[in-house]
Design brief:
The complex is a heterodimer of chains A (180) and B (245).
Chain A (H helix, E strand, L loop, with lengths): L3 H8 L6 H22 L2 H17 L11 H21 L16 H19 L3 H12 L4 H8 L3 H21 L4
Helix pairs in contact in A: 1-2, 2-3, 2-4, 2-5, 3-4, 4-5, 6-8, 7-8
Chain B lengths: L6 H4 L3 H5 L5 H10 L4 H10 L2 H8 L11 H18 L21 H22 L5 E3 L3 E8 L7 E9 L2 E9 L9 E6 L4 E7 L7 E7 L8 E7 L5 E8 L2
Antiparallel strand pairs in B: 1-2, 2-3, 2-9, 3-4, 4-7, 5-6, 5-8, 8-9
The chains are: A mainly alpha (180), B alpha+beta (245).
């Protein structure tokens, strides 16, 4: 089975479209979710996914596997495409794509944050339910280790070690996704 | 809380420490340990950035419905069109001049004989194209009857293949497919060595479908067509099959 980097390499010469199809099937779902969250409108998100893969095959020769994973590269393309979409929308004030972000925030920065946020959410989904629960209770709900132990009826030592393992697992997943 | 923890005792507390979920005495014990322990300090540093990233993660809304398969086909269609137009045009071949034979067509009956021969050849060619094997080629279309596989024994289907820029257009007429609009079918074109998709489709509630699909494979590059279903594990099951040549 070809790696993602090999599929990008094949895009340059593959006339059958199979390499493009494989990449699309691997990444279109999560890119669509990201685009929907970033743009807030389904039609615009669908258009963006098409644009990402179109740019990927047109510029496949620019991909450098030593610099980024294929996922990171596709997200970077998505980021640029969103910035382009928002700039186009900005000159057509009658067609807002999304609620404006912080008034003076640079456009690229807000897209970068949205992209990072989506990828972290994806990384959390790849953790085991037990690990995700520890992170949710401690970070989102703000419970202490002792309170989590009471809530889950687990020994407090187990809660501590599980939280530690959960964060280590999250760090590994993020590294795999190219986020360091 | 013992202020002098060993590394083995301290490490599991680092998760709670970076998430600020330890009791105050535990937090103090970790702080007291770190300056003298590069190993634990390095472990802490590797986790320290995570709370900031976790702040970005919420909230995320998942799409109510996934992307429609038609978007995949639209992308592949665009790819087929653009890759064809981007293909470098070969330089024109230089025609080799044949030596003149100096035959003089002096008699009208020679021209009549040659016209009759040409007509006979044309009829022969047409016969060869419709060889009674369920395939018929017209000037534009190539029509093939597909055979039902055990997964859909009552299915009847035929396809018309026609040349399009960058590949082949396929029009499929089918009936008797297992009813149920949730089932996604995929048409595959290929030969003994490779297979490429012509796209996906669904049948209506009566198991009928008329659909136009496009594959990037060109006429002559493939000799078999299959309609398949895929389960969640990616295992394909034949529903219809056909051979072209």
């Amino acid at each position: 089975m070809a790696t993602d980097a090999q599929l990008i390499e094949r895009l340059r010469t593959d006339a059958t479209g199979e390499a493009l199809r494989e990449l699309y099937r691997s990444y279109s779902g999560e890119l669509f979710g990201f685009a929907l969250n970033a743009l807030g409108e389904r039609g615009a998100a669908e258009e963006l996914v098409q644009e990402v893969f179109t740019r990927a095959w047109r510029h496949a020769e620019r991909y450098d596997p030593n610099r980024a994973s294929v996922r990171t590269w596709l997200y970077q393309i998505a980021r640029h495409a969103i910035i382009d979409q928002r700039r186009r929308a900005a000159v057509r004030p009658g067609l807002p794509l999304h609620e404006p972000s912080a008034a003076n925030e640079p456009l690229g920065e807000s897209v970068e944050q949205a992209m990072l946020g989506w990828q972290v959410a994806m990384a959390l989904e790849r953790l085991s339910p037990d690990h995700r629960q520890m992170i949710r209770l401690a970070h989102v709900q703000g419970l202490t280790m002792r309170e989590i132990a009471e809530h889950t009826e687990l020994p407090v030592g187990t809660v501590k070690s599980r939280t530690w393992y959960a964060l280590r697992a999250l760090r590994l997943v993020l590294e795999e996704m190219g986020i360091r | 809380m013992d202020a002098h923890l060993t590394c083995a005792e301290l490490r599991p507390m680092l998760g709670g420490y970076v998430l600020e979920a330890l009791e105050p005495d535990e937090t103090e014990a970790v702080r007291a340990h770190l300056p003298d322990c590069p190993g634990c300090a390095a472990e802490l540093a590797s986790l320290a950035e995570l709370p900031r990233l976790l702040d970005l993660a919420a909230p995320v809304a998942h799409p109510d419905e996934p992307l429609s398969p038609s978007f995949e086909e639209a992308l592949l269609d665009r790819f087929a069109r653009e890759s064809e137009s981007a293909r470098p045009v070969p330089p024109p071949k230089r025609r080799r001049r044949l030596p003149k034979l100096g035959i003089a067509w002096t008699r009208p009956r020679v021209a009549v004989v040659s016209a009759v021969l040409a007509a006979a050849l044309a009829v022969g060619a047409m016969s060869a194209l419709d060889g009674g094997d369920g395939q018929m080629r017209t000037s534009k279309n190539y029509i093939v009857a597909l055979q039902p596989a055990p997964a859909a024994p009552d299915a009847k289907a035929r396809i018309a293949l026609y040349r399009v820029k960058g590949g082949t257009g396929v029009k499929l007429w089918a009936s008797g497919l297992p009813p149920g609009s949730k089932q996604v079918y995929e048409m595959l074109c290929g030969n003994a060595h490779w297979t490429t998709s012509a796209g996906t489709f669904r049948a209506d509630a009566q198991g009928k479908v008329v659909v136009r699909l496009t594959t990037a494979a060109r006429v002559g590059e493939y000799d078999r067509v299959r309609v398949v279903t895929k389960d969640r594990n990616g295992t394909t099951t034949d529903v219809l099959t056909g051979r072209l040549f």
